[in-house]
Protein backbone atom coordinates (compact mmCIF):
# COMPACT_ATOMS: atom_id res chain seq x y z
CA UNK A 1 0.00 0.00 0.00
CA UNK A 2 1.28 3.36 -1.05
CA UNK A 3 0.99 6.59 0.95
CA UNK A 4 -1.55 7.96 -1.50
CA UNK A 5 -3.56 4.76 -1.13
CA UNK A 6 -3.25 5.08 2.66
CA UNK A 7 -4.56 8.62 2.81
CA UNK A 8 -7.38 7.73 0.53
CA UNK A 9 -8.45 4.88 2.65
CA UNK A 10 -11.51 5.19 4.83
CA UNK A 11 -9.53 3.98 7.82
CA UNK A 12 -7.46 7.18 7.83
CA UNK A 13 -9.38 8.80 10.65
CA UNK A 14 -9.33 5.69 12.80
CA UNK A 15 -5.62 5.43 12.50
CA UNK A 16 -5.18 9.03 13.53
CA UNK A 17 -7.31 8.45 16.61
CA UNK A 18 -5.30 5.37 17.64
CA UNK A 19 -2.05 7.20 17.10
CA UNK A 20 -3.24 9.99 19.31
CA UNK A 21 -4.03 7.67 22.18
CA UNK A 22 -0.58 6.12 21.94
CA UNK A 23 1.22 9.46 21.92
CA UNK A 24 2.04 11.58 25.08
CA UNK A 25 2.10 15.37 24.69
CA UNK A 26 3.99 17.35 27.39
CA UNK A 27 4.81 20.96 27.85
CA UNK A 28 8.42 20.47 26.92
CA UNK A 29 8.05 18.35 23.84
CA UNK A 30 5.93 18.70 20.69
CA UNK A 31 3.02 16.54 20.12
CA UNK A 32 3.21 13.80 17.43
CA UNK A 33 0.92 11.42 16.05
CA UNK A 34 3.41 8.73 16.24
CA UNK A 35 6.71 8.14 17.92
CA UNK A 36 8.44 5.04 16.62
CA UNK A 37 10.63 3.13 19.00
CA UNK A 38 8.88 4.43 22.20
CA UNK A 39 7.14 2.11 24.54
CA UNK A 40 4.40 2.68 27.13
CA UNK A 41 6.76 2.08 30.11
CA UNK A 42 9.05 4.88 29.05
CA UNK A 43 6.14 7.22 28.75
CA UNK A 44 4.98 6.55 32.35
CA UNK A 45 8.50 6.89 33.69
CA UNK A 46 9.00 10.23 32.02
CA UNK A 47 5.64 11.41 33.29
CA UNK A 48 6.48 10.52 36.91
CA UNK A 49 9.85 12.23 36.67
CA UNK A 50 8.19 15.30 35.34
CA UNK A 51 5.62 15.35 38.18
CA UNK A 52 8.33 15.03 40.86
CA UNK A 53 10.33 17.86 39.40
CA UNK A 54 7.26 19.97 39.18
CA UNK A 55 6.44 19.23 42.82
CA UNK A 56 9.97 20.08 43.86
CA UNK A 57 9.88 23.21 41.82
CA UNK A 58 6.48 24.12 43.22
CA UNK A 59 7.65 23.42 46.77
CA UNK A 60 10.76 25.51 46.19
CA UNK A 61 8.65 28.27 44.76
CA UNK A 62 6.22 28.01 47.70
CA UNK A 63 9.09 28.05 50.16
CA UNK A 64 10.60 31.02 48.41
CA UNK A 65 7.21 32.76 48.38
CA UNK A 66 6.74 31.99 52.08
CA UNK A 67 10.20 33.32 52.87
CA UNK A 68 9.50 36.36 50.78
CA UNK A 69 6.12 36.82 52.49
CA UNK A 70 7.76 36.41 55.88
CA UNK A 71 10.37 38.97 54.92
CA UNK A 72 7.69 41.30 53.64
CA UNK A 73 5.72 40.81 56.90
CA UNK A 74 8.84 41.52 58.95
CA UNK A 75 9.49 44.64 56.87
CA UNK A 76 5.84 45.66 57.26
CA UNK A 77 6.07 45.12 61.04
CA UNK A 78 9.26 47.14 61.23
CA UNK A 79 7.64 49.88 59.20
CA UNK A 80 4.51 49.75 61.31
CA UNK A 81 6.56 49.87 64.50
CA UNK A 82 8.54 52.77 63.10
CA UNK A 83 5.39 54.64 62.15
CA UNK A 84 3.81 53.88 65.53
CA UNK A 85 6.94 55.10 67.31
CA UNK A 86 6.98 58.24 65.18
CA UNK A 87 3.29 58.85 65.83
CA UNK A 88 3.80 58.21 69.55
CA UNK A 89 6.80 60.57 69.61
CA UNK A 90 4.84 63.14 67.64
CA UNK A 91 1.84 62.80 69.98
CA UNK A 92 4.14 63.06 72.99
CA UNK A 93 5.79 66.15 71.51
CA UNK A 94 2.39 67.70 70.87
CA UNK A 95 1.23 66.80 74.40
CA UNK A 96 4.43 68.25 75.88
CA UNK A 97 4.01 71.42 73.85
CA UNK A 98 0.36 71.69 74.92
CA UNK A 99 1.25 71.06 78.57
CA UNK A 100 4.03 73.64 78.36
CA UNK A 101 1.68 76.15 76.76
CA UNK A 102 -0.94 75.50 79.46
CA UNK A 103 1.73 75.83 82.14
CA UNK A 104 2.92 79.14 80.68
CA UNK A 105 -0.67 80.36 80.41
CA UNK A 106 -1.35 79.33 84.02
CA UNK A 107 1.85 81.06 85.14
CA UNK A 108 0.85 84.15 83.17
CA UNK A 109 -2.65 84.16 84.74
CA UNK A 110 -1.19 83.59 88.20
CA UNK A 111 1.26 86.45 87.68
CA UNK A 112 -1.51 88.74 86.45
CA UNK A 113 -3.69 87.72 89.41
CA UNK A 114 -0.84 88.37 91.82
CA UNK A 115 -0.15 91.76 90.23
CA UNK A 116 -3.85 92.61 90.36
CA UNK A 117 -3.99 91.51 94.00
CA UNK A 118 -0.92 93.60 94.83
CA UNK A 119 -2.41 96.57 92.99
CA UNK A 120 -5.74 96.16 94.80
CA UNK A 121 -3.92 95.83 98.11
CA UNK A 122 -1.89 98.95 97.34
CA UNK A 123 -5.06 100.87 96.42
CA UNK A 124 -6.81 99.60 99.54
CA UNK A 125 -3.83 100.60 101.67
CA UNK A 126 -3.77 104.01 100.05
CA UNK A 127 -7.50 104.48 100.61
CA UNK A 128 -7.15 103.27 104.19
CA UNK A 129 -4.30 105.71 104.73
CA UNK A 130 -6.39 108.54 103.27
CA UNK A 131 -9.37 107.56 105.42
CA UNK A 132 -7.15 107.32 108.47
CA UNK A 133 -5.70 110.74 107.71
CA UNK A 134 -9.16 112.21 107.21
CA UNK A 135 -10.38 110.56 110.40
CA UNK A 136 -7.35 111.81 112.30
CA UNK A 137 -7.90 115.34 110.99
CA UNK A 138 -11.61 115.16 111.84
CA UNK A 139 -10.84 113.85 115.30
CA UNK A 140 -8.22 116.53 115.80
CA UNK A 141 -10.68 119.18 114.64
CA UNK A 142 -13.38 117.73 116.87
CA UNK A 143 -10.94 117.64 119.77
CA UNK A 144 -10.08 121.29 119.19
CA UNK A 145 -13.77 122.17 118.98
CA UNK A 146 -14.44 120.22 122.16
CA UNK A 147 -11.51 121.92 123.83
CA UNK A 148 -12.79 125.31 122.77
CA UNK A 149 -16.29 124.40 123.91
CA UNK A 150 -14.90 123.10 127.20
CA UNK A 151 -12.98 126.33 127.67
CA UNK A 152 -16.09 128.31 126.83
CA UNK A 153 -18.21 126.27 129.22
CA UNK A 154 -15.53 126.56 131.88
CA UNK A 155 -15.54 130.32 131.48
CA UNK A 156 -19.33 130.40 131.56
CA UNK A 157 -19.37 128.12 134.58
CA UNK A 158 -16.76 130.28 136.30
CA UNK A 159 -18.77 133.39 135.53
CA UNK A 160 -21.98 131.72 136.66
CA UNK A 161 -20.24 130.59 139.81
CA UNK A 162 -19.05 134.13 140.47
CA UNK A 163 -22.57 135.37 139.94
CA UNK A 164 -23.98 132.60 142.09
CA UNK A 165 -21.41 133.33 144.79
CA UNK A 166 -22.26 136.99 144.61
CA UNK A 167 -25.96 136.17 144.80
CA UNK A 168 -25.26 133.85 147.70
CA UNK A 169 -23.27 136.53 149.47
CA UNK A 170 -26.10 138.99 148.89
CA UNK A 171 -28.49 136.40 150.19
CA UNK A 172 -26.31 135.77 153.24
CA UNK A 173 -26.30 139.47 154.03
CA UNK A 174 -30.06 139.56 153.66
CA UNK A 175 -30.36 136.49 155.84
CA UNK A 176 -28.25 138.11 158.49
CA UNK A 177 -30.45 141.17 158.29
CA UNK A 178 -33.58 139.16 159.05
CA UNK A 179 -31.97 136.54 161.29
CA UNK A 180 -32.97 138.38 164.46
CA UNK A 181 -36.55 138.71 163.28
CA UNK A 182 -39.12 136.35 164.76
CA UNK A 183 -40.53 134.15 161.97
CA UNK A 184 -44.24 134.36 161.40
CA UNK A 185 -46.03 131.38 162.85
CA UNK A 186 -46.88 128.42 160.60
CA UNK A 187 -46.87 128.59 156.85
CA UNK A 188 -45.20 126.62 154.07
CA UNK A 189 -41.65 127.93 154.57
CA UNK A 190 -41.61 127.38 158.29
CA UNK A 191 -42.51 123.71 157.69
CA UNK A 192 -39.66 123.37 155.18
CA UNK A 193 -37.17 124.77 157.66
CA UNK A 194 -37.96 122.28 160.43
CA UNK A 195 -35.11 119.85 161.04
CA UNK A 196 -33.02 121.00 158.04
CA UNK A 197 -30.17 123.35 157.40
CA UNK A 198 -32.17 125.18 154.74
CA UNK A 199 -32.76 128.88 155.00
CA UNK A 200 -35.60 131.11 153.99
CA UNK A 201 -35.27 134.78 153.32
CA UNK A 202 -36.76 137.68 151.46
CA UNK A 203 -34.96 139.27 148.52
CA UNK A 204 -36.35 142.65 147.73
CA UNK A 205 -39.68 141.55 149.15
CA UNK A 206 -39.59 138.10 147.47
CA UNK A 207 -39.88 134.99 149.57
CA UNK A 208 -37.13 132.58 148.44
CA UNK A 209 -36.19 129.15 149.77
CA UNK A 210 -32.77 127.50 149.29
CA UNK A 211 -31.85 124.17 150.87
CA UNK A 212 -28.13 124.73 151.46
CA UNK A 213 -27.57 121.10 152.47
CA UNK A 214 -28.90 119.73 149.15
CA UNK A 215 -27.68 122.52 146.91
CA UNK A 216 -24.19 121.03 146.19
CA UNK A 217 -25.77 117.82 144.88
CA UNK A 218 -28.02 119.68 142.43
CA UNK A 219 -26.73 119.72 138.84
CA UNK A 220 -28.09 119.58 135.27
CA UNK A 221 -28.20 115.76 135.35
CA UNK A 222 -30.84 115.62 138.09
CA UNK A 223 -32.46 119.08 138.10
CA UNK A 224 -36.12 119.66 137.24
CA UNK A 225 -38.09 122.92 137.23
CA UNK A 226 -41.80 123.22 137.95
CA UNK A 227 -43.64 126.53 137.52
CA UNK A 228 -47.09 127.05 139.09
CA UNK A 229 -48.84 129.99 137.48
CA UNK A 230 -51.72 129.90 139.96
CA UNK A 231 -49.54 130.85 142.94
CA UNK A 232 -46.79 132.55 140.86
CA UNK A 233 -43.97 130.31 142.10
CA UNK A 234 -41.13 128.32 140.53
CA UNK A 235 -39.58 125.30 142.23
CA UNK A 236 -36.31 123.49 141.39
CA UNK A 237 -36.15 119.84 142.41
CA UNK A 238 -33.37 117.29 142.54
CA UNK A 239 -34.70 114.03 141.15
CA UNK A 240 -33.58 110.91 143.00
CA UNK A 241 -35.06 107.92 141.14
CA UNK A 242 -38.84 107.99 141.58
CA UNK A 243 -38.52 110.67 144.26
CA UNK A 244 -37.84 114.38 144.02
CA UNK A 245 -36.54 116.75 146.68
CA UNK A 246 -37.15 120.48 146.72
CA UNK A 247 -33.91 122.49 146.64
CA UNK A 248 -34.91 126.00 145.46
CA UNK A 249 -38.23 127.84 145.49
CA UNK A 250 -38.89 131.41 144.45
CA UNK A 251 -41.64 133.85 143.59
CA UNK A 252 -42.02 134.65 139.84
CA UNK A 253 -44.06 136.89 137.60
CA UNK A 254 -45.60 135.28 134.50
CA UNK A 255 -47.52 136.67 131.50
CA UNK A 256 -50.18 139.24 132.07
CA UNK A 257 -53.65 139.27 130.55
CA UNK A 258 -53.40 139.05 126.76
CA UNK A 259 -49.87 137.62 127.01
CA UNK A 260 -50.50 134.43 128.98
CA UNK A 261 -47.55 132.13 129.61
CA UNK A 262 -48.16 128.81 127.79
CA UNK A 263 -48.54 125.70 129.92
CA UNK A 264 -47.06 122.28 129.16
CA UNK A 265 -43.91 120.21 129.53
CA UNK A 266 -40.81 121.66 127.90
CA UNK A 267 -37.03 121.50 128.04
CA UNK A 268 -34.48 124.26 128.26
CA UNK A 269 -33.32 124.82 124.70
CA UNK A 270 -30.92 127.71 125.18
CA UNK A 271 -28.93 129.40 127.97
CA UNK A 272 -27.51 132.91 127.63
CA UNK A 273 -26.13 135.04 130.40
CA UNK A 274 -26.80 138.21 128.44
CA UNK A 275 -29.77 138.68 126.16
CA UNK A 276 -31.98 141.52 124.96
CA UNK A 277 -35.53 141.24 123.77
CA UNK A 278 -36.14 141.72 120.08
CA UNK A 279 -39.81 142.60 120.60
CA UNK A 280 -40.07 144.69 123.78
CA UNK A 281 -37.93 147.48 125.11
CA UNK A 282 -37.52 151.24 124.79
CA UNK A 283 -37.32 153.65 121.88
CA UNK A 284 -34.64 156.32 122.37
CA UNK A 285 -33.65 159.49 120.55
CA UNK A 286 -30.19 160.38 119.18
CA UNK A 287 -29.09 161.51 122.60
CA UNK A 288 -30.00 158.16 124.15
CA UNK A 289 -33.05 159.50 125.97
CA UNK A 290 -36.16 157.34 126.22
CA UNK A 291 -39.03 158.46 124.04
CA UNK A 292 -42.53 157.42 124.98
CA UNK A 293 -41.52 154.98 127.74
CA UNK A 294 -41.53 151.24 127.28
CA UNK A 295 -42.90 150.11 123.97
CA UNK A 296 -42.82 147.45 121.29
CA UNK A 297 -40.41 147.33 118.38
CA UNK A 298 -43.25 147.75 115.90
CA UNK A 299 -44.55 150.99 117.54
CA UNK A 300 -41.98 153.68 116.88
CA UNK A 301 -42.92 156.95 118.51
CA UNK A 302 -42.23 160.35 117.00
CA UNK A 303 -38.68 161.58 117.61
CA UNK A 304 -37.29 158.11 118.30
CA UNK A 305 -33.97 157.22 116.75
CA UNK A 306 -33.54 153.53 117.51
CA UNK A 307 -34.92 150.67 119.57
CA UNK A 308 -33.17 149.20 122.62
CA UNK A 309 -34.41 145.73 123.62
CA UNK A 310 -35.17 145.04 127.27
CA UNK A 311 -32.42 143.23 129.14
CA UNK A 312 -33.20 139.61 130.01
CA UNK A 313 -30.12 138.36 131.91
CA UNK A 314 -29.59 134.66 132.61
CA UNK A 315 -31.95 133.71 129.83
CA UNK A 316 -33.26 130.12 129.67
CA UNK A 317 -35.50 129.46 126.62
CA UNK A 318 -38.25 126.86 127.07
CA UNK A 319 -40.77 127.40 124.24
CA UNK A 320 -40.32 129.63 121.20
CA UNK A 321 -39.77 133.17 122.51
CA UNK A 322 -40.78 132.21 126.05
CA UNK A 323 -38.18 131.65 128.76
CA UNK A 324 -37.08 132.29 132.34
CA UNK A 325 -34.88 135.33 133.01
CA UNK A 326 -34.09 138.03 135.53
CA UNK A 327 -36.76 140.71 135.66
CA UNK A 328 -39.03 142.82 137.80
CA UNK A 329 -41.17 140.53 139.98
CA UNK A 330 -44.26 142.20 141.45
CA UNK A 331 -46.92 140.25 143.28
CA UNK A 332 -48.92 139.60 140.10
CA UNK A 333 -48.42 138.50 136.45
CA UNK A 334 -46.79 141.40 134.60
CA UNK A 335 -44.67 140.08 131.74
CA UNK A 336 -45.35 139.69 128.02
CA UNK A 337 -45.33 135.89 128.40
CA UNK A 338 -41.91 135.14 129.86
CA UNK A 339 -41.31 133.99 133.44
CA UNK A 340 -39.50 136.68 135.40
CA UNK A 341 -37.31 135.50 138.31
CA UNK A 342 -35.74 137.67 141.01
CA UNK A 343 -32.13 138.71 140.32
CA UNK A 344 -31.03 137.34 143.72
CA UNK A 345 -31.81 133.71 142.78
CA UNK A 346 -31.94 133.40 138.97
CA UNK A 347 -28.10 133.24 138.60
CA UNK A 348 -28.09 130.38 141.10
CA UNK A 349 -30.80 128.51 139.20
CA UNK A 350 -29.01 129.24 135.94
CA UNK A 351 -25.82 127.63 137.30
CA UNK A 352 -27.62 124.46 138.44
CA UNK A 353 -29.54 123.56 135.29
CA UNK A 354 -28.52 122.95 131.70
CA UNK A 355 -29.77 122.67 128.16
CA UNK A 356 -32.22 119.79 128.20
CA UNK A 357 -33.39 120.26 131.79
CA UNK A 358 -37.16 119.51 131.92
CA UNK A 359 -39.51 122.41 132.74
CA UNK A 360 -43.19 121.88 133.56
CA UNK A 361 -45.57 124.85 133.55
CA UNK A 362 -49.01 124.34 135.08
CA UNK A 363 -51.91 126.53 136.12
Q: Would you give an account of this structure?
A:
The protein has 363 residues and is α+β, with helices and mostly antiparallel strands. The protein has a domain of 139 residues: L,D-transpeptidase catalytic domain-like (Beta Barrel). Helix content is 46%, strand content 22%. It has 5 helices and 14 strands. A 7-stranded mixed sheet has the order 1-2-5-4-3-14-6. The chain has a 4-stranded mixed sheet with strand order 7-11-12-13, with helices on one face. A hairpin with a 2-residue loop joins strand 4 and strand 5. The chain is rod-shaped and about 185 Å long. It starts with a helix and ends with a strand. The N terminus is likely disordered.
Which sequence of SSEs, written as H and E, runs from N to C? HHHHEEEEEEEEEEEEEHE
How would the global form be characterised?
rod-shaped
Task: Report, as a whole number of angstroms, the end-to-end distance.
Answer: 193 Å
- CATH class division of the domain at 188-275 and 312-362: Mainly Beta
Helix content: 40-55%
User: Main sheet: which strands, in order across?
Assistant: 1-2-5-4-3-14-6
CATH homology superfamily name of the domain at 188-275 and 312-362:
L,D-transpeptidase catalytic domain-like
* CATH architecture assignment of the domain at 188-275 and 312-362: Beta Barrel
Rg, alpha carbons: 70 Å
Proportion of residues in β-strands:
15-25%
- Indicate the low-confidence ranges by residue numbers: 1-10, 12-18, 20-36, 174-203
Question: How does the helix and strand content classify structurally?
Answer: alpha+beta
Largest sheet: 7 strands, mixed
Number of helices: 5
Q: CATH topology of the domain at 188-275 and 312-362, what is it called?
A: L,D-transpeptidase catalytic domain-like
Q: What is the count of β-strands?
A: 14
Mean pLDDT: 77
